[in-house]
């Protein structure tokens, strides 16, 4: 008894056009080449998307420069603020539509796009709207940089857009943003929102495309700032390309976060935190808690509870309101997850997944946990970026810190214990930009986010997020 | 301690409850409950969307789980008889509506309820032990209980001594439950924790284990006389406790949220909570009850909405 | 054809989210700059002060417990509703003697001022809070918390002045009792109508109209008020009030002649903030 009936969110709320142009200087313009964006849950083609070449990027950067020189930098800060407040309000007004669109294009469950992504997107614009006319309270003599070239990933398409555009505009910059090639639709919807808000043309430009478009943007001599969120590999390339140009750079890259559970942890909540840490957004999260470090004395009990809990995860249609785990974003990503999981098997870790039926079409991977993982295994070192958890054990706090830090990454970490002083002791020693204690994967516009080491540099969010866009 | 409760010998619990010190050590050694995390989990489960056939089944299940309750100073035999009639035939115009699980009354009205419900299959539950405060000598509580059982109550809803619990005298609370359990004989014992007075989820978890180790057949959130009464996170913590208790001892204990559950939407949230926390084994009136009065009519209204396709109004359902 | 007779508004007090008349049953005539009758305003009594303090105290814990983000959203909503009444406020300010252009400028400045403060709700702690590097194994941080219930003697700038003293007091989680401008109280009550329809919980702002010199001493001496803003008091009244406020050590903001056209800074917010410092050991 109590199989939930299908509860699909209505798709009628969104209107996907057959084809989309580039958003440059306040208008949609066509490009020479096109590519398709698909629904990863069904492999259905959603729309034809324009692929910006270097000439298109030139035009976008020129439009952004013109808007910067003639309009945006001359506007009183309070008026900039009011534009951003408008955008925040329109996002709130259209939030369900945007959530559905995000889930269709990305594959993430509607529960998450509706309850996590969209509220955070609106909140981010609200937060930075408020900063626009208060910059001198954060930084002495705040001056904008000029034109920002921004490249964002496919895991939180609209949220990453908000993280990039809101602070940039608040600080007085104009932007050219390239969304990921597999998830361009909400960025294009955002372009329409800019028009509803009467944002002056050229302040926000959206150029769609893949790696080549991104390269054209970050290497363009007309931009003053590069902001990138994505893989550490591409981040390294960008850092090389930007070297010596004088462009300002912030990078938010990969991670292999340790989620550390002590034997005095609130176990039921720790289990939730582990699940939320690695299965939220199908594990397509740079700060995902992909390495569970559990104290040996409680490992067996915790893993029993974790497996019981994993068996209740509902995998399937992203638009079903009861779905917990949706589709993998692309065939390429699915192949990568499979390859690394296979490596886990080969290296002798023990794989477990709850019984779950995966749809025939689309890209799917069952929630998976590997036990018996050693630090030397690939699945303990490489970012899988999927719903795959590697479990390791430790005996003492020192050992937990040592193992947690034993990675080139340093984006985030989790600590679970009811002892406050130990939380702070661990937090002091963990080489990670965000430490969650007795919670995981929490985000707020007021809270700075970003990595140590090869997880990147610069912070997004909070007062610190302004520094990336001010001179 | 003088009385030994009935728990399997291999669970190790007999030893735990053998001294006040070991009992306290065990209860304080249970994993803590992080308030924020527990409330987040309950809130997230509350976003489940139960539609169509699943909703129809859930409504009927919820009706069959209702302990239809009247616990007022102004209760009379007439009021109890009316409630019994309602419990046996919730919707006079629709025989397919299941009857409720039990009628819950004060102990002096048990005989009236037993007469009214004879042969119907609807149970009679009685609150006892100086409900709702529980502030009376043990002898009075036991007499209250025996009287209700003698009059035919099949279920006893006792209250724990919250004062003793908050003072840290777990052994006293334990022994009292054991004594009431003995006085119940064959009657099922529901132990009311009054979670609104225990305040913290850590206390709720400890009290749940204490009651289960002392022999409770059910653990129940509230009397309905203290605010807050039943809440989703409190019920979540109690469902985790019965799940863990069965895993450890093999014995299944039921859960009953009571008070403040007034709408179908609320009731379905509780069923989702049961389904995804303790599991489907608890999704029967034998292991999950909802203590309520006004909830029943809302369930009937929503049920009719599903069958007719139009929203119903309160004038079309009986007020008893 | 005769001109349509207008339906006039009764201007009442604003206490606990409701609009009661003064319990005293009194009112006073409000005239425009030329001496023409505009309306009768309620003339509040000391008992209205007492009721307003009860309402403000009751609302305070809940208002302070809202997330700063939520308070910011509500304040922004108030700005939206102010914008919707732009013409009404402009007319009312012209009644107090301003030209149409000056009235419009004042209304626009008041709306923008409100937006400016709305943005502060989730930032003031990031500007005034600190992590303190103490010499020992302790994590130590300081955060601002609202002072509590604040009595405000509003200045005579009937809208921008009122907004400039009210918004900074409430956005941090304080609740308030405001004595409106005595000669020009009407925009304050219209502002109350905006507040009453903007998701602001009842009791966060309570507005009394009446005689400043009659009401101010009751506020200044009230033992359940934690802070006092004397912006609208003249020198003698301010001194008396400050002395009375010393009894329970109210935080007092003395009258200032700051130019309300410029960036007001954060002093009006920090005047009614306490600083809380927390120590916690760091260890295994």
From TrEMBL, chain A:
Residues 31-470 form the Aldehyde dehydrogenase domain. The active site is at 252. Keywords: Oxidoreductase. The keyword tRNA processing does not apply. SUPFAM superfamilies: ALDH-like. GO terms for molecular function: oxidoreductase activity, acting on the aldehyde or oxo group of donors, NAD or NADP as acceptor. Transmembrane segments: none annotated. PROSITE patterns: ALDEHYDE_DEHYDR_GLU. The keyword Nucleotidyltransferase does not apply. It holds the Pfam family Aldedh. Belongs to the aldehyde dehydrogenase family. This is Aldehyde dehydrogenase.
Automatic annotation (TrEMBL), chain B:
GO terms for cellular component: cytoplasm. Its EC number is 4.1.2.4. Pathway: Carbohydrate degradation; 2-deoxy-D-ribose 1-phosphate degradation; D-glyceraldehyde 3-phosphate and acetaldehyde from 2-deoxy-alpha-D-ribose 1-phosphate: step 2/2. Keywords: Lyase, Schiff base. One of its GO terms (biological process) is deoxyribonucleotide catabolic process. Belongs to the DeoC/FbaB aldolase family. DeoC type 2 subfamily. NCBIfam families: deoC. This is Deoxyribose-phosphate aldolase. It comes from Actinoallomurus iriomotensis.
TrEMBL record, chain C:
It comes from the Bacteria. One of its GO terms (molecular function) is oxidoreductase activity. Residues 24-253 form the Aldehyde dehydrogenase domain. Gene3D superfamilies: Aldehyde Dehydrogenase, Chain A, domain 1. The keyword Ribosomal protein does not apply. InterPro entries: Ald_DH/histidinol_DH, Ald_DH_N, Aldehyde_DH_dom. Keywords: Oxidoreductase. This is Aldehyde dehydrogenase. It comes from Actinoallomurus iriomotensis.
